[in-house]
Each structure stands twice: as C-alpha cells, then as structure tokens.
Amino acid sequence: MHAGREERSPSVGRASTAAPIPEREQRILGIIETARSKQKKFRDERVNMAHGAGGKATQGMIEGLFAPAFGAQTAEDAAALEIGGAALAFTTDSFVVKPLRFPGGSIGDLAVNGTVNDLAVSGARPRALTLSLILEEGLAADDLKAEVEAIAAAAQAAQVDVVGGDTKVVERGAADGMYICTAGIGERDPRARPAADAIRPGDRILLSGSIGEHGTAIMLARGEFDLDADIESDTRSLWPVADALLEEAGPSLRCMRDATRGGVASVLNELARSSRVAMLVHEARVPVDPAVAGASEILGIDPMYVANEGKLVAFVAPESADGALAALRSVPGCERAAEIGEVRTEPPGMVLVETSFGGKRVMDQLVGDPLPRIC
Amino acid sequence: MRYVDEFRDPELGRVLATEILAAVEPGRHYKFMEVCGGHTHSIYKYGVDDLLPANVELVHGPGCPVCVIPMGRVDDGIAIAREPGVIFTCFGDMMRVPGSSGSLLEAKAEGADIRMVYSPLDALRIAKHNPDREVVFFAIGFETTAPSTALTLKRAKAEGVPNFSCMCSHVTIVPPLRALLDSPDLRLDGFVGPGHVSTVVGARPFEFIPADYGKPIVVAGFEPLDILQAIRMILAQLADGRCEVENQYSRVVPYEGNRRALEVMAEVFELRPHFEWRGLGFISQSGLKLSEAYADLDAEVRFSVPGVRVADPKACQCGEVLKGVIKPWECKVFGTACTPERPIGTCMVSSEGACAAYYNFGRFAREREVV
After folding, report:
1. Which chain B residue's Cα is nearest to A16?
2. Which of A236, A295, B12, B81 could bond to B88 as cystine, CB 3.0-4.6 Å?
3. Does A5 score more than 50 pLDDT?
4. Which of B1, B362, B368 sits opposite A294 (nearest CB)?
C-alpha cells in the first residue's frame, strides 16, 4: 500500500494553461451537459444483455420506462413504507446466476442474502422473505433439495423467516435450471435514515472489505478460462455490518449500498449522479485479495467493476468516519474494511480515481456487460 | 503482484515525470501518437496523461482493432450469423460495434446464435461439440492476434473439422501508419510504437517512420512506467536531434520479431489488395484474407455475404481526429449525430477512442487543465 500519496511534487503536474475555451467548444460542452443531465430515454427495439448489466442501458430502461410508469422517485434499494404507524422497508429481487452452485455459495444463498442486504443497506432490520421458484423441467431433485436446504440455512444465519412462496415449472429450455424471485420486508431502524439524498460533500466513503470475490468466483466456476484459483464468493448477510455502523455512527451514517452487479464503481457512479456530487477514490486504499487481483490482471478486468455479494459501501460524516471504520473492522469478516475516499462538490455526477500509480482519472459507468447472470 | 507492481511504482513514475518536465522545451507543444489501443487503455487506467506537462499531448491512434472494422464488414458478419444453423463466434468487444443496421449484440437479441469467445481455439472447440452446426469465427486484430487465428486454422485443417470456418478481418499495422504519415496535414512529433504487435513483427518494420518521414518512434510496453519511459525517450531524440526506432520494450520485443509467428501467418494468410478502415477509408494491402491453401475454411467463400460497402457518414471526421488535425469537438457530427450511445466513427465506438473519451471526460479534462 502506498499511503500518503496526496502530497505530489510541486514541480510535476499540469502547468497552468488557463487558455480561454473556444466558443464552439463551449457550445459543444453545453450540448453534452444537456444530454447528460436529461432523463434517459428507452428507445431500443429489443432487450439485449446490456439492459441487465446495471450500466447505462439499465439506467435508460429505469428512467425512461419504469419510473414514468410507476412514478418512482427514489433510487433506493428498498422502498420505505409507513403502514399502521410501523416504519417498514420493502424490497424485491430475482436470481438467475449461472452456475447454480459455485465456490462459497449457491443460488439459494444469494437469494436470501441478496434480499436481506437490500434491506440492511436501507437501514432496516430484515424480518421476513417470500420466495418464488421457477424450475426448468428436468431439474434434478437433488439440486432442488440442495437449494432448499441452502435457503433454509442462509435464512437461519440471517435471522429472517421464510414466510411464503410459489412454484412454477416451465418446459425444458424455457429456463436454465432454476430461477428465484424474492420479496423481503424489514423494520426501519430508528438510529439513522440512510438515503442517497443524505450524502454531503466532505462525507467519507467506507468499504466493508476486499472486493471482487463473488464475480471472480463465478467467472472461474464457469470454466471458460483455463484458470484455477482459491477464490470463494463472499455471499453473506450484511445486517451485522449495517447494525455496527448504525450503532456507532447513528445519524452520521448518511447512506449505504451493497456493491453487487457492476461492483463498487457502479454503486459510486449511481450515487454521484443521483446526489449531484463528485467522489474521489484512492485506488491504493481499496482492499483486493491477491488471487482476485491476479485473476483480474490476466483477464483484463478492473476489480472495481466486479460484483460482490457481501460488501457494502457506506457514506459517513467526516467527524464520525474513524469511529465508524473501527466499528466496521470489529465485525467478523470485515477486518480489511477501509476508508477509500471522500465526497466532493466538483465535478458533480462524476467519480474520480487517484490511481495507485499517482495519476487521476474518471471511473465511468459501465456501458456493456462484462459478465451476465452474476446473481 | 511480482513482475507487475515493479512496473507501476509511483515513485519511479514521479521521477520519470520530473525528467519529462525537464526535457520539454518551454513554449513548444508536443503531439505524440500512441498507436496501439492497449496503450490508450493503460494511459486512462493509470492516469498517465495526468503526470505529463500540459504541452505534451497524446493523440490516440488507429490501433484499436475493433473500432477500425467498417460498417459493411459488421453487416457481413451479421448476415452470416443469421444463416440457419450457424453459430457465429467473436471477441466480446466486437459485439457492440455498430453496423449499418445494428450491432452483433442486437442481432443476438433478435435470435441469431452469436457467442462470445476468448480465443479462436474456443470457437474451434464449439465446432467440434456441435458437428451439425456451422461455426464461424469472426477474426479481428492486428498481427498481435493473427498468429493465434492462423494456428487455429492450421489445427482445424489438420484435424479435419468440416463445420468450422473463419471470416478474416485481420489487419496489418504498417499501411495505416503510412497512410497517416502521407497525409500533408499531419501534426505529430513522434510515435509511441505498438508493443504487442511488435512482439510478432519486431521493431524493424517501423524503420520507414524515421527514414522516410523524419519522425521518431519508440516501441513501448504497456505498463505505466513503460509509457512514461517511452515518452522520455522520444523527447530525448527530439532534444538530441536524433530520429530513429528505439525499443523500450526489449524485455519482450525482439528487434526482428517472432519468426515462427510470421511463418505461420505467411502460410495461412495473404494480403488483400485493399481493405476499408472505419474513419480512414480504403488502404491498400492493409488487410489479410485466407490463402489459397485455406480457402475452404474461408467463411466469405462458404457463405454468400452481401459485401456491400457502407460509406462512413460524410460528416464524420475520424481521419482528421486520428491525424491530430482537429480536436474531437471540432468534428461536424460530434456530440450531436455521433455520441457514445449512437456512435458513427471509430473514435466514438470504443470507450477509449479520442471522441468517446472527450465526450465522457472532456469537462473534467478542462477543469484539470486550468487547475
């Protein structure tokens, strides 16, 4: 790790060339800015894999199709509801991972933990789940039994009840083994109301542990590369992590997100855009397991974009950051938690990275889908 | 990571940056082209340009093999992919490149069996597993990837895999460089030479650049220190009044290239009389097709392809951007008809192309410059 990279030699860096921006360039920059801030449209003729990747195409579908139809206003992982005086959080998720089982977990673990985590990062204690199974004709009974057991065990570990479900069977070829759709409900915790619009410039960005393990484990489990490494999915319930942060930071805990599809980079981009702030990440502070770093290096993938199933990103007011980090690190499995960056005002909507090499760059949203069906 | 982190040492990077700053003549503006898309990628990934003085400008060259494939070729690929019984295989980045009516990704969504592979050998394996299907590999890339296609074709022939064929869109590196250099309005002071291509062709083929055009070129590796060192070496040539081919990447690139790779390419491929490049137009002897001996593995022989040339939109000025004559925002269609979501030219197709980079990050770059 290279700490203290901030102080750069004063002689190095861009010389001051405050040349006036030509009028035409200024106009073009204006056109781009308008296009960027405009609500995205859904104009594609067909759905393609990019629509499921969580990047620009997904965003177009949400902003251009779903939000106008349902009047959704927030970009939270779970909806906040007030029912009969009870403050609840409600979420839904679906799981289509291929293969069904992989080192460190299976589709059943993901279904429980993924749903629980959407509640946890919304600041809600997960209480109950429902699950719908879509099964393909011909699925081996042993595979189904194994997943039911995995679901039961994961639910017990996460201290949630599975309170209902549904089953559909489709013809061979109409699904790939099994898909799981879930709904989850939780009690919003009174200690904080974390939300995207609570993020403020100056907030510190904390990460609960090393990144990229789930996506890399899936990639290797598919056997498309002749690569072998001991990397396991990090699938777990994040409620104990969220609980520790709520306890330590209280209302100073501004926002949390689990860094699933599209990785930490996508989460930060989404939040920078919706909260109209900038973020600066110090790459050297982001913990990456050596095996994950090695596999990413060989495959030409940036671990910042690789999916996690048991890591969260938290935004904490600066004065509470040290305490929150210590609390995070005391949670089993989060020993490598780190403060990876901070929220800034300029340039709004963008995520900048100070690279380990000492340069600065933009960490953009994903355009295509590097790895479909990761969860 | 051993043997990797050494080439990304920020301390050494700072030393090189200081040396580069000392080597530039104040008041002089330098434009260097990094030819290879791999260099462009590293420059963005590590923020290398952020360590350079403002008067050293890097121009991203034509070396992204995906982006230079013209629309007509994409259309031909889609036409083959839509033939009944065909499994069409290609590298992942090729899927998004637009043809005249959509990309391979969109054709896949419409029902064509298009699969992403990581190596041509994967395509051959798919052919062996699906003997009742025709499996076509869309081969793209410079001399870097051409040898692996050649070896795959040799193996397919030796093993007699009748349902495998190759749509060859391999290109060669020297002709487009010559085309750029021949242009009277070129504004470049030197080249960061393509390291991966040079592992195959060597550094010798670039001798014409200093000899005929008087520009220095330094073949460089892909780690950030490699690129900074190459820039320092170019600046040293300019300062000394030297003009030659230098090999910064000598740990991998032999000056004479890889003879065995060149031999297998010579056996399997032959030059096309001309090949069209997106943004650059037709360049003679710049593309490869399968040789006579391998014609029965040529997908363009096996299937009827439309072969219709789709002209680059007239207003597209990728050629000028590549030559460093105009800035992305000076192009007539930039930001209006041509955007990253709906790209027209090669510079917008790849996220690392000069235009896409400016579109996405230009505002940031501007802010950085006036800091």
Report:
1. B370
2. B81
3. no
4. B1
